[in-house]
Amino acid sequence: MKRFLPCFVLAASLLSVSFAQPGVHSPTFEVASIKLGVPEKDGTAARCTGGPGTRDPLTFRCPCKSVGFLARYAFNVSLSRLDGPSWINEACYDLAAKLPPGATRDDVPLMVQNLLAERFHLAEHHETRTLPAYTLVVVPGEPKLKPSAIQPAFPGPSARKPPSGPPWALSIADGGYYRLTATNMDLKSLAGVLEGILGSLVVDETGLTGNYEFRLNYLPPGAPGNLDLSDERGFPVTDISSALQPQLGLQLKLQKRSQDVVVIDHLDKAPTEN
User: Fold this and answer.
1) What pLDDT, on a 0 to 100 scale, did the predictor assign at position 44?
2) Measured between alpha carbons, how far is 93 from 119 in angstroms, rounded to an integer?
3) Sorting pLDDT into bands at 50, 70 and 90, what band is 173?
4) What are phi and psi of 34, to 5 degrees?
5) In degrees rounded to 5, what are phi and psi of residue 213?
6) CB atoms within 10 A of CB 219
7) How do strand 31-36 and strand 49-50 relate by DSSP bridges?
């Protein structure tokens, strides 16, 4: 299987007007290189790696990511909540940065904000807009989620050793469809992954706590709707909204919500030199 990077997104709630310029108290990378990247021929992309909480806490790398991706990561917004120029997702860049000792995971998005301001002269403001959003709920009587066998708090003899890799991964299965494989994932994180795939806010209202292990096979947005595919378990492979109920016993309900939108006022097409 081929690994590719999901677009991580989290909801933002603070309405403010600001310009993303490095400040005295705003965290920045010690050293950062950003240069034009080369996309993979099959359209997949490597995962961003490193940073606080990983095996390489003082290094952060994002290979072949568009300025749009970096901006969404920096401001924790989904595709629908970033209003920018049409070319923002065209070219991709390789980002490699060194973090200062003591940096936290929450510092990294702010460092990317400051990097975009410094190298692309990014300026932005925030607006509240009413946009489509999804609510993730449990289908009554149909939860199909298996609790994770990984129990970090009180590991008994039957508990599996926590894996060295991430608790979930996105990949392309041999049948050509996409697969989300989770070994230790909570529903809030699942909502974040769904938000990245769908490009709209997804709010977890399942009421389910704890972490789960599951496999979700689906067709990516934009795939032809007349494909007759089934996975190895016999489930039809459909768009991700339709795949949730038969495979996981979950459902997405569409509604409209007031949301924070990042509006880009200025952004250079190319970064200044390293």
Assistant:
1) 61
2) 12
3) confident
4) -135, 120
5) -120, 135
6) 20
7) unpaired
Distance CA 148, CA 207 (A): 17
pTM over 0.70: yes
Token reading at 98 = 């060194």
Amino acid at 253: K
- How many residues are present in the chain? 274
- Tokens representing residue 140 in the block: 């009554």
Rg of the chain in Å (alpha carbons): 19
Spans of all domains in the chain: 2-127, 131-257
Q: For 115-154, how does the pLDDT look when each residue is reduced to its tens digit (9 = 90+)? A: 999 999 999 999 999 999 999 999 988 778 999 988 654 4
Per residue in 105-120, pLDDT (tens digit) is: 999 999 999 999 999 9
Rounded CA separation 195/201 (Å) = 5
Kindly give the residue spans of alpha helices, DSSP state H, lying in the chain.
Answer: 67-75, 107-120, 187-198, 240-248
What residues pair up with 95 in beta bridges, in sequence order?
34, 62
Count of CB atoms within 10 A of residue 146's CB?
11
User: Across the strands, what pairs with 215?
Assistant: 181
Cβ–Cβ under 8 Å, residues 271 and 66: no
